[in-house]
Design brief:
The protein has 159 residues and is of the alpha+beta class. 21% of the residues lie in helices and 38% in strands. It has a single domain, classed as Nucleoside Triphosphate Pyrophosphohydrolase, CATH 3.90.79. The chain contains three helices and eleven strands. The longest helix has 13 residues.
């Protein structure tokens, strides 16, 4: 059985209650020009492996300029064309402002209808998991962060 990489993403409705979600434009390789949720992988620095909560917060700030806190857990998103298992969290902005970078030339809070009508239908989203995670958020099926327990950067879902 192959070990799969784990990535984390943040579903960030910004401003809260606006029905708009922050997406970043990708510039790497075959994903160039596609839009994605902010996220990435865990860092390993000086023997310390950050946990998935820390990774989601750090990656979201690096990619969007927004300082966030995690307020919920949406679930695991697995697609066969991607080698990663994606863990989706709900984040809330607590500071900062949206900013672009060389790696993410567009960082924007898109209204839901624009994501559905233009980005999703025009194949401008990096993968189906982007829309799946946003729809999960829209449905209100959000689990408390306590449903995810961190143990030496491993995770367990459940009670």
């Amino acid at each position: 059985m192959a070990i799969r990489k784990i990535g984390c993403v943040s579903v960030l409705e910004h401003p809260v209650g606006s029905n708009s979600y922050v997406l970043v434009e990708e510039t790497k390789n075959k994903k160039r020009g596609l839009f994605n949720l902010p996220g990435g992988k865990q860092n390993y620095i000086d023997g310390y492996e950050e946990n998935l909560f820390e990774a989601a917060i750090r990656e979201t700030e690096e990619e969007t300029g927004l300082q966030t806190e995690l307020i919920g857990f949406l679930g695991l998103f697995d697609y066969h064309q991607d080698e990663k298992l994606h863990i989706a969290f709900v984040a809330k902005a607590i500071g900062g402002s949206l900013k672009t970078s060389k790696i993410h030339p567009t960082v924007e809070s898109f209204p839901l209808h624009a994501i559905e009508d233009h980005l999703n239908s025009g194949s401008m989203l990096r993968s189906p998991r982007v829309m799946s995670a946003i729809r999960q958020h829209q449905s209100g099926h959000i689990l408390p962060l306590s449903s995810v327990s961190m143990n030496d950067a491993d995770f367990v879902i459940g009670d």
